[in-house]
Design brief:
This is Hydrogenase maturation protease. The chain is of the alpha/beta class and 179 residues long. It contains 6 helices and 5 strands; from the N terminus they run E-H-E-H-E-E-H-E-H-H-H. It has a single domain, classed as Rossmann fold. It has a 5-stranded mixed β-sheet with strand order 2-1-3-5-4, sandwiched between helices. Helix 2 crosses helix 3.
Length: 179
């Protein structure tokens, strides 16, 4: 009788909520992270997934990415991707950091985080952005109505992305035609 092979370890996935909660809809990423960890989402995050609210701490994210994650899911408010509250899921590759959201009202441009990671000698893992079109990033606490209404759907999108990152998927090529 052949012994059963040990189960493969789940992929290590970092879910990063980014944004400034003091600038209206820019607080979308942190709010989605709260939904994921507080039980508001439709399911719990699986083993191997770490969810962190980075807020505006871009260098903290760059240093954490040095831990050699299999995949990264960025959750952020994004500009020019439809009507306020529209949620978009798209992939960015290491050679195309310009495709990452560049709202930067929070002082944390993901492209700058990717450049910092490269300068530190790290590699960008397979990266998917779950972004929501912002309505207003003026000073003020709280999301606009359309963006607030998108939080739970975005949390479910994060869960769908994470569930799609099986062992074979995290090392696969980036398909830049999607999104």
């Amino acid at each position: 009788m052949t012994p059963a092979s040990p189960a493969a370890s789940p992929p290590r996935i970092l879910v990063a909520g980014i944004g400034n909660i003091f600038l209206g809809d820019d607080g979308f990423g942190p709010e989605v992270l709260h939904a994921l960890v507080s039980g508001r989402a439709s399911a719990a995050l699986p083993d191997g997934v770490r969810a962190v609210d980075y807020g505006i701490r871009g260098m903290h994210l760059a240093y954490d990415l040095l831990d050699d994650w299999d995949a990264l899911v960025l959750v952020d408010a994004v500009p020019d991707r439809g009507r306020p509250g529209d949620v978009r899921v798209f992939e960015v590759g290491p050679d195309d950091p310009g495709a990452a959201p560049r709202l930067d009202a929070h002082g944390m441009d993901p492209g700058a985080v990717f450049a910092s990671l490269a300068a530190l000698g790290g590699r960008l893992p397979r990266t998917v952005v779950v972004g929501c079109q912002a309505a207003c990033v003026d000073e003020g606490i709280g999301l606009s109505a359309p963006v607030a209404a998108a939080v739970d759907d975005a949390a479910d999108e994060v869960l769908a992305v994470v569930s799609g990152f099986g062992p074979a998927a995290v090392g696969g090529p980036v398909d830049e035609t999607e999104g």
